[in-house]
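Reviewers of the previous submission asked for a worked example of the structure-prediction workflow described in the proposal, so we include one complete record here. The input consisted solely of the amino acid sequence. No template or homolog information was supplied to the procedure at any stage.
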Amino acid sequence: MTDGVMYIASGEQYLSEAEYSATSVREQMPDVNIALVTDHENIEADVFDDILDLTETYPDSGVSTLRPGLSPYDRTLFLDTDTFLAEPVPELFDILEDYNMAFTQSPGRLAVPGLPDPWVEFNTGVISYESSTATEQFFERWLDIYQNMLKSDDIDRNQPSFAHAVAESDVDYFLLPREYNCRVPRFGYLAHEAKVVHGRDTVPLADIAARLNENPDRRVHWPKIRRNLVADLQVVHESDIEYRPLHIAFRFKRSVQRNGLRHALRESYRELSRIVGRL
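From that input alone, the workflow returned the following structure tokens.
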């Protein structure tokens, strides 16, 4: 059984991004296979083990969906070119022992035209999947729905059609937590180390990953627009706000409301003693 990471890239920007991302994969998982599906000839980057012809798989239309038989591997981790692997992720292959596919929700949680609540979009930039009849049928259905939505509703984004394919199919999927597809610069929440960082920023994704994982406790992040109208990433940890005066006042008020003044004062004394003990 072979495991491998796969990229699809057409155009110089995406080829450069794919090489950057694949280099991060090679650093974190030196023994994993890496494939590039492209329409460019004479690819010189030695980070890729397999170079596949994009035009054979997508002869008539643009690259919008994964296709049956595209991957040369038994278990595949498909990554968008604008991704960075910050930690090894062998578990994204191991999860396929029990499921056909694994992916995350889209952080924007956009509603899907034609599907009722609570259906929202899934992100298609990080997908782990096995080679099986179930996934091949899923990819065929995804393509059909995508083409229909493009023709009838002029929807060229592939995530609404992906959600429809999930809703209609019997594919057995696992919903990954945000750490496996941390979108930047976006609003988000992390409780562990970000393993796959996904997006385009003004600084290298390696630097973004280092900032996100500097302190891997519970934290939020969001885009912060600087004066030159360039988005930067702001990261705030739970511990950063734990002892701010307003936060302390809020916790004291809530404790009084829930448990009474005497209990709140007693707990405040214990908390103060714990803080002083750290000094």
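The first helix runs from residue 12 to 28. We consider this example representative of the routine output the project will generate in years two and three.
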